[in-house]
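ok posting inputs for the IPE job
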Amino acid sequence: MILIKLGGSVITDKTQYRIFNRDTVRRLCAEIKDSGVDSVIVHGAGSFGHVLAKKYSLQNGLVDPAQVPAVARVQYDVRELNLMMLDELLNAGIPAVSVPPGSCFMMADGKLLLDDPEVLLSASRLGIMPVMFGDVVFDRNKGFGICSGDQIVEVLCGIYHPERVVFVSDVDGLFEKDPKTNPDSKLLTEVTSELLSRVSSDSSVDDVTGGVRAKMEAMLRMTSPERDCVLVNGSVKGRLCSLLKGERVISTTAKGGL
Ligand code: IPE
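and the output
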């Protein structure tokens, strides 16, 4: 099976609070369905999560009572996003259910605790896709914290043992420098940890979960001799479908572990 993370940069407009890219999501759901692959989707929070999470520093855990209403608001916003995602998945013919991390699981010092995967596996056995997403999750030690979709994907690797993990973003892959501010930057088709240490960590948008570098590090941690991990541009029509079918497309593949 293939684990797919639909990044917030492709399913939302990350620069504007709560803007859902419905047309893109509709197309991506159809591409996943058309590819015919067995998959589980995780999605990011985009502007439904990052804007308020950054404003109230929710990634730091509880430090100020003023953060508390923001915790509830962000949970509400990312659930709305998740329901819109599910609507598109159902319309594409993919039976999918919501598994909100903030309601189903805990964290301890920022680490997602998913000791009992019975809900997830029961859905999968029935041919229903359990869909998790970047969320605010209660934390045993810090009160609450941000759980990113990338973190969820990492944990799900230990549960589903996917042969491939695909991160869908709005860039062609990892560039030597941020392509939004450096149009001449070169695409890296393959990334190793040694190469990553030389890549610029600039990012043109606000992101409480660390931007492209954190994503690449997470991707490298998920690789193994049996599993590659690919970053692909979901804004380009047909590219995700081709990749899922095993065709070669413009993308960055993480190899060799961290
Ligand atoms: C972030 O999740 C969760 C919140 C800010 C609540 P992600 O880090 O997976 O979201 P994207 O993909 O970067 O938008």
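notes: The chain has a mean pLDDT of 93. The longest helix spans residues 67-91.
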